[in-house]
Each structure stands twice: as C-alpha cells, then as structure tokens.
C-alpha cells in the first residue's frame, strides 16, 4: 500500500525527534526533503506542525528540539506556583497598570457601576525568560486600590491579594482557541498565525464577592492545561 507522502514525512520526523534531546539541532528543510525524496513544501508543512505543537522551536537561523510545554493546573493557584512545580523559573513583565472604566458586561461581573473605574493590570508571563502568556486582570478598585502602594507587578498577584486577608472561594473558567491580534503577537514574540489558548476567569471570595476578571492568552506551542476530575 502506498502511504501519502505527508504521512511518511511526519512519521519520519517523529522518528528523528525520538533520537534527539532538548536543545539538539533539528535538520534543515533542504536536508529533510532530500532524505525523504519529497518537495520542500511537503517538509515545510510537517515542520510547521511540529512548531505549532511546541516540539521544536526556531533559535537564531536554525531549529532545535524544544523544552516540554509548561503544564498549568486549572486551579486557584497562581502562575508562579504552577511554573515552580515544573522546575521552571517564572517571571512577569509589566505592560499596563491603570485605572479605567469598562463595558457594562465586565462592570456587572465585578459588581461595580460602569461609570466607576476599575484597576487594570496587564502583564507578560515568562518561563525561564521566554514569553509564554499575556495576562489582563481587572480588579474592583474599591477593594484593591492600596495595591499601588506596595505591590511589585513582577511578583504573584494572588499572594498579594491573600496577604490582604482575602480568601478565594471559587472561580469559573472558560478556555478556547484563538489567534492573537498583531499587538498580542508582537508582545508574545510570535506571529498572528500561532494558535493561542484563551482563558477567561472570574474569581470570587468565600462570601461570593468578586475578586477579579482575567483574560489570559497563552502560546499554544508553549503551554498546556491539566485538570483533575473526581466523581462525586
């Protein structure tokens, strides 16, 4: 049986990867095309699939085997805690910190008047210095106005919130796949063709008072999410 060339190429690339370790150089497209006896476009498509899956990455003018994806648990834990559990060094870069008004839907989620400002904190999430996510957090200003006095935006926001005596009760999250805007792609140092994981979350405290509304965009080639489910 004659198998399709794209299938044979992809199977061959998987075999090559199985013999390489993180950081090893991945063969260039021209060499792969000669090895498999196919057009470079066929190889290019298979390599693109591996890039999107996060199994290889561009580094300089070449391509190398990528680190495993950062696996984040879906829980009321901070990004810092999730990254550290995987032995990665978390980091954040501040993009925006402002008090601003929001639309009626977001105001309702935070239980504030649409005419009243809320706190907006936008930060890039890093793992071992690599930009993997863009997090936009909205907080009710009447609860957290004093963050401006002592909060370091490169540190854990959840730790700062808990230090104020706030106890997280529960959160509702929705995850979907999207493509980034040109601005988001530039901030995340990727292209608008890179699939993203979009996480929308609303958290409340044990008294059901809103804590935050978050829109977090994660690079699909760098991050995966995991949840633990129980029957009961």
From TrEMBL:
One of its GO terms (biological process) is negative regulation of DNA-templated transcription. Residues 2-68 form the HTH gntR-type domain. Gene3D superfamilies: Chorismate lyase-like, Winged helix-like DNA-binding domain superfamily/Winged helix DNA-binding domain. It comes from the Bacteria. GO terms for molecular function: DNA binding; DNA-binding transcription factor activity. Keywords: DNA-binding, Transcription, Transcription regulation. CDD domains: WHTH_GntR (cd07377). This is Transcriptional regulator. It comes from Mycolicibacterium chubuense (strain NBB4) (Mycobacterium chubuense).
């Amino acid at each position: 049986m004659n198998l399709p060339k794209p299938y044979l190429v992809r199977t061959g690339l998987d075999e090559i990867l199985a013999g390489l370790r993180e950081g090893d150089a991945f063969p260039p497209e021209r060499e792969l095309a000669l090895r498999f006896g196919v057009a470079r476009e066929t190889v290019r498509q298979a390599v693109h699939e591996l890039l999107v899956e996060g199994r290889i990455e561009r580094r300089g003018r070449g391509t190398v085997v990528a680190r495993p994806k950062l696996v984040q648990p879906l829980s009321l834990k901070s990004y810092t805690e999730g990254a550290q559990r995987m032995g990665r060094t978390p980091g954040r870069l501040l993009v925006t910190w402002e008090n601003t008004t929001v639309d009626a839907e977001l105001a309702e989620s935070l239980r504030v008047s649409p005419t009243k400002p809320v706190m907006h904190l936008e930060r890039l999430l890093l793992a071992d210095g690599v930009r993997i996510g863009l997090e936009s957090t909205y907080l009710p200003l009447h609860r957290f106005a004093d963050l401006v006095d002592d909060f370091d935006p490169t540190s854990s926001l959840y730790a700062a919130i808990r230090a104020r005596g706030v106890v997280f009760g529960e959160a509702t999250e929705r995850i979907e796949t999207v493509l980034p805007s040109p601005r988001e792609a530039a901030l995340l140092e990727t292209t608008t063709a890179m699939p993203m994981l979009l996480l929308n979350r609303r958290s409340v405290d044990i008294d059901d008072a809103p804590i935050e509304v978050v829109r977090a965009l994660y690079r699909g080639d760098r991050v995966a999410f995991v949840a633990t489910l129980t029957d009961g």
